[in-house]
Amino acid sequence: MSTPLASLTATAAISLTTLPTFCLASPLSNNALSQTEWLLSGVTTLLLITLLLSKAQHEKRQSALLRDQHQLEDRVSKRTETLNDLNEKLSNEIVQHKATEALLKKTQAYYHSIIHSMPSIIIGLAEDGTITHWNNAAVLSTAISEKDAVGQTIDNMYPYLNIKPEILKAALGGDDPMSFECLAQGHGSHRRYVDLTIYPLKGDHNGAVVRIDDVTQKVQVENMMVQNEKLMSLGEMAAGLAHEINNPLAAVINSIQNIERRTSLSLPANRNIAEQCNLDLENLQHYFEQRGVKRSIETLREGAERAALIVKNMLDFSHGGAESRGPEAINQLIEHAVELAKRGFETGESKEAHSSNLILELKAEQDICLCAPTEIQQVILNLIRNGCQACEEAGIPPEITLTTRTELDQLIIDIKDNGPGIPDDVISHIFEPFFTTKGVGQGTGLGLSVSYFIITEHHDGTIEVESHEGEGTCFSIHLPLLEDG
Fold first, then answer.
1. Which CATH architecture has domain 324-485?
2. Which of 141, 326, 412, 438 fits 443 for a cystine, CB–CB 3.0-4.6 Å?
3. Which of 299 and 33 is assigned the larger pLDDT?
C-alpha cells in the first residue's frame, strides 16, 4: 500500500514530465532561456506541487468529513429512534395516567356519592379534630353547609353531641372504634336519640370518621314494646287480682252499708229494736257524731268504694274489649264528652271544667272512625280531667282546648291545657300502670295507662304527649280514618 506522500511524489513527477521542454533544458546548452524564465518555471512547479498537496489534503479532509458525517448521521438516527421510543412510551404513560386519573376521579365521585347518599351522618376529622368531610345528612341535620363546616371543630358545628374532648382525643389516638348508644338530644317532643361511632384512621391520613345514626324511631318502638309488655303482663294479672280482692271488698262494703242502715233513724225496725233494748237511738246518733264514729264510717265507705273503683279499673284494663265497634263521628263524641265535663263528672272530677274553660276547634271535615264510642269518650274525659286537675294544683284557671284535624289517613285529636307542664323525668313514665304524681288517695295511676291501652290496643291508634315545663301539655291521639265505602 502506498503512502499519501509517495502518491504526492509520483503525481509531482508526472506533472514535471508534462512541463515544456524549454523548462527542462540545460541553461548551459542553449543560452536561450533567461533567468526570468527559469524563475517562472520554478514558481510554476512549486505552485503545482502546492496545489497537488492541497488537493490531497482537501480530499483527505473531505473523506474525514464524510466519515464523520456518516457517523453523526448514524448517531442521530439511533438517538432519534431512541427518542421516538421514549416519546412513544411517554405518550403511552400519559394516556395511562389520564385513564388512571379519570378512573380515580370516577371512583372518588362514586365514593363521594355513596357517602352523601347515606342516611347516616358522616363527619371526617383531621388529627387535630377539625372537620374535613361533612355529608348531606349532616347538612340536613344541622342546616350547616359543607363549605362552612370544613375546618371547624365538631363541638362548634354539632354541639348536641356533647362529645367530651378527652373522649375525642382518645378516639383519634386509639386503634379500635368507640361506640355510644342512645345519646339523647333535645327535650320533650323534640327529643331525639342517636348512636355515635368514632372510627380512627391510621396511615397517610391520621384522623377519624364519625358516624351518627338517628335511632329515635327505634327507641320509640322499643319503648312502645316495653310498654305493651307491661300492659299485657298487668292485664293478665289484673283479672285474677281483681276477683281475689272483690270478695272481701264486697263483704266490707256490705258491712258498712249494714252499719249505716242499722243505725239510721229513718227505719222503723231500728227504733223498735232500740226500744226493746232500752236504748235511745237519737242519743246514740248524737254520740256517734260527737265521737266521730259517723265520720269514720263514711271514711270507711269512701275508702271501700274507691277500692272498688280501682278493682273495676283493673277489670276494665284486663278486659279485651267487649264493646262493639262501629263507624262513629269523632267530632260528635268529643262534643258529647265536653257536655259531660261541663256538668261535672259523676265521680267528683274538677269543678273547673265549665264551658268558659273548654274550647272546641273541631276542624276535621272527615271524622268517621271505627271505634267504641264509650271508650273514646272515657279517654277524652280522662284527659280533660287530668288537665283541669293539673291547672288547679298550680293555681291556674284551667283552659282546655280540643281540636281535630286530618293528616293523610289519620284523624288527630289534640287536647291541650295551659297547666304547668310535665317534668322531663316524669313524662317517660306517665303511661305506666299505677304511676302517679298525685298524693295518696288522689289518683290510682291507671287513668293514662288505660287510655293508652284503649287507643293502641282497641283502636289501632297511637297516643303521644308533648310537654314543656311552664308551657302546658298537649296529648295527641291518632286514629285511622274509616275508608270510604
1. 2-Layer Sandwich (3.30)
2. 438
3. 299
